[in-house]
Design goal:
- The model has no long low-confidence stretch (mean pLDDT 91).
- This protein has a single domain, classed as Nucleotidyltransferase, domain 5 (2-Layer Sandwich).
- The relative contact order is 0.19.
- It is 39% helix and 21% strand.
- It contains 3 helices and 4 strands, in the order αβββαβα.
- The protein is of the alpha+beta class and 119 residues long.
- The longest helix has 19 residues, at 5-23.
- It is globular and about 45 Å long.
């Protein structure tokens, strides 16, 4: 029996996360979620189980509400890097989830790197 699109996505997401956990134990995780309309990102401390900082295209102060494009992803990436610096985080590992590393996800990661976050 063929797997559904959602089941394939979940398998890909867990495969990516499990590989990253083995390599980056003890570091903060930069987790990305992309929907059809928005993109959001969180800095998560898996040891404590807490979110340290987050940014989303839904935030009005970023000025990209309702835009689901590379420009919005770039602004969200810059915002999360600034918030990470305020929280005292200099490096994190990038958890793309089940999303492919191109387009908006890549733009977000590149913007976070340019703003000073080591990924």
């Amino acid at each position: 029996m063929a797997l559904s699109k959602r089941e394939l996505f979940q398998k890909r997401r867990m495969r990516v996360r499990n590989k990253l956990r083995k390599v980056n134990a003890g570091r903060v995780r930069l987790s990305v979620h992309r929907s059809n309309k928005n993109i959001s990102v969180q800095l998560i401390d898996d040891l404590a189980g807490t979110t340290l900082a987050s940014a989303s295209s839904l935030e009005k102060d970023l000025g990209v509400v309702g835009k689901n494009n590379i420009e919005a992803a770039t602004k969200v990436g810059t915002a999360i890097a600034e918030r990470a610096k305020k929280a005292g985080i200099e490096e994190a590992y990038f958890d793309r989830g089940g999303f492919l590393f191109h387009g908006k996800v890549k733009a977000l990661a590149d913007a976070a790197r340019e703003a000073g976050l080591k990924i």
